[in-house]
Amino acid sequence: MTNTRIVIVGVGGQGVLFASKVLAQAALAEGKNAVMSEVHGMAQRGGVVVCNLCIGDINSSLVGLGEADIVFAFEPIEAYRALPKANKSTRFVTSTSPVVPVAVSIGKAKYPDVDDLFSQIREITSKLTALDADKIATDAGSYLTVNTVLLGALAGTDECPVSKEKLLEALKASVPQKMLEINMRAFQAGLEAAASE
């Protein structure tokens, strides 16, 4: 069994924990071991959310420096902050849509150039899938499906540790019925966006 160490990052309200749980459920449905840990201190106020998910013959959810097989990021700065966990083989799947911190919105700080952040990621690994998840989710029918768009994008990479079918099954079991159709569209749109990268 192949072991996969995933670092999942974003900010509060983006659905990082939801996506992490869907991935873990898909892995379990395939008969794989899945170990997860999360840190979401100030997440309710738009703070950082970090989740480590290890799939395979692994007993710890800790992902050390340079050990991540996948960095799954919902926000560009958070993708960049996870860079110490990456190595030359790490697959990054990230949204290009910034979530502007309070310090930036009140003029006390400046949001970094997103292209510059991605250039620095590319200096470590060429495996970068970056898409405007906010726009894709909105076009699919709801901004709230950003996490589903990104799950679709991850499913479209060679590094995804679970099958697209099991990921879809876990997603269908996790979203409210009234949001199911929109989430299916969002997943497919993310899958197609990753394929065109």
Give short descriptive properties of this protein.
6 strands; alpha/beta; globular; six-stranded mixed beta sheet
Q: What does this 3D model show about the protein?
A:
With 197 residues, the chain is an alpha/beta fold. Helix content is 41%, strand content 18%. It has a six-stranded mixed β-sheet, with helices on both faces. The two termini are 28 Å apart. The mean pLDDT is 90.
* Main pleated-sheet profile: 6 strands, mixed
- Percentage of residues in DSSP E strands: 15-25%
Q: Rg from C-alpha positions? A: 16 Å
Distance between termini? 28 Å
What would you call the structural class? alpha/beta
Average pLDDT works out at: 90
How many individual helices?
8
H/E order of the elements? EHEEEHEHHEHHHH
Dominant shape: globular
Biggest sheet, spatial arrangement of strands: 2-3-1-4-5-6
Tell me roughly what share of residues is in helical segments. Answer: 40-55%
Q: Assembly state here?
A: single chain
Low-confidence stretches: none
The number of strands is 6
Secondary structure topology:
Layout: E1 4-11, H1 16-29, E2 34-39, E3 48-55, E4 70-73, H2 76-81, E5 91-95, H3 102-105, H4 114-124, E6 128-131, H5 133-140, H6 146-155, H7 164-174, H8 180-195
Helix pairs in contact: 1-7, 5-6, 5-8, 6-8
Offer a quick outline of the entry.
By secondary structure, this protein is α/β, with parallel strands linked by helices. It is built from 8 helices and 6 strands, in the order βαβββαβααβαααα.
